[in-house]
């Protein structure tokens, strides 16, 4: 094969492609010898022949690519656009310009066929588009026209895919509009829908229950009771990601809890057990707990939740040693601590626990200030508390008002806090001042008063 002319190898690569397709695609087998051959060519004096063989291959298995990725594809994924750009910058002569034009024309021809034959993924299209954007910035008029054609090939499948997706989503939503809340939830709980279809369904369910909460429509109480076990089943579903869909599910849970705990005065034990269970991941338990915007006055509900979450919250409120890409654990602990304290501030048997949580929240913020780790953590934690206060405000009484005022005063007093974080605290104060009834407003007099403790 090393003596094969370039014109002949182009014919040979087509034959290799057909055989590979038969072996790998049709018979779901492997052809490791071909991988070894490509690797050998890549190590020879004419490595371009390796690309000739590789370029027409159908999608192959991961280990096949892995054999030669250090020789054949090394630098291609990360540096293809860089190499083209560098060549483009230097291609001032007619000969270099001709080579560049020919190369882009060959790529256009290859890409237009390959993307349709093998149904490129979104990531593959993105890679090609990003590469063309880089090249477009440094090439001349003639080559820019070819780059534009290649980019059109990328955007047209995007548009077609987008139109098909939007058409499907409209049709799916039209189906859901004619179903009751129970029917929608049964579909969610029993069928293996893809994530986007599930998200549309859960959002439709949220709209239905929101309309019930706002008294725009009436859902029978018997239907609400049937929703309860199905919702718990959805929360426990294996593989359910902690994403936007889970968060909408939290809103749905809140609507049902509002009906059952407030209007029907029934304890939703299954929901309590889900939040209070050691089997439930911390971030899921805290998130669902903070979704409950109602006053949890039932000790049978809130105390078991507190007993499960308390130690975990105290532990996770220890400031992280370094800023990570995802510091959501600390933020959730701060949010969960606030929720526990606000719900238990009038429960005398848990007064010391409330005090410990509140002081831990303040000490944690102070330590973050001292470590200069405020960015990305403190402001986010404050904003989450602000969101919770907005949703809970309607049931706040004197005890909640005193607690929030005392907490805000102590947070304001921490030295070194950035203005962006203080602005959020100021907004929380404004929300409370405007939202709490005048007769409930009473400023805390001392350390014991804001935590609703009896001075001894």
UniProtKB/TrEMBL annotation:
Q: Which residues cross the membrane?
A: none
Q: InterPro entries from the xrefs? A: DUF577
Q: Which superkingdom, per the lineage? A: Eukaryota
Instruction: Give the signal peptide, or none.
Output: none
Looking at the record, the residues that make up the DUF577 domain are: 1-67, 224-399
Protein name (database record): DUF577 domain-containing protein
Supply the source organism for this entry.
Answer: Arabidopsis thaliana
